[in-house]
Specification:
mainly alpha; 4 helices; about 80% helix; globular; transmembrane helix; transmembrane
Length: about 130
């Protein structure tokens, strides 16, 4: 039997590299700056957070089986907290959050959330 945490980590890295490439391609196509708005930091932080949250859920899967959904939600709260602590102050330095700044955070956040939700759903269904 394969390790769901290892499989998720590999899948998450591949997905994030692909999405990052597409994101940069779109920015280049639109002749916009590629590496501004903390885009690299955003992808790295979001990737690390989804791997850590999935890992914690994997470690707690037996002891807190019936609470895993709530723990997943707590992980989402953690991601929002990281946004408001790390990214929000940087993006608000000029007084507004531009569409590019928003996209730099939201694109990896959204794809991470989708990947995490689908992977956890499949994994949890196998536990039952």
């Amino acid at each position: 039997m394969s390790n769901p945490f290892f499989n998720f980590t590999v899948k998450a890295n591949i997905v994030f590299i692909a999405i990052f490439g597409v994101h940069l391609g779109v920015l280049r196509l639109l002749d916009l700056p590629l590496f501004e708005n903390k885009i690299v930091l955003s992808y790295v932080v979001n990737l690390v957070l989804i791997i850590v949250i999935f890992g914690v859920l994997y470690l707690l899967r037996k002891k807190y089986k019936s609470q895993l959904g709530f723990l997943f939600l707590a992980g989402s709260v953690l991601k929002f907290a990281v946004f408001f602590v790390v990214f929000y102050p940087l993006y608000k330095l000029d007084g507004t959050i531009s569409k590019l700044e928003f996209a730099s955070f939201f694109v990896p956040y959204a794809f991470g959330l989708i990947l995490e939700s689908v992977s956890l759903s499949k994994w949890l269904n196998k536990l039952e």
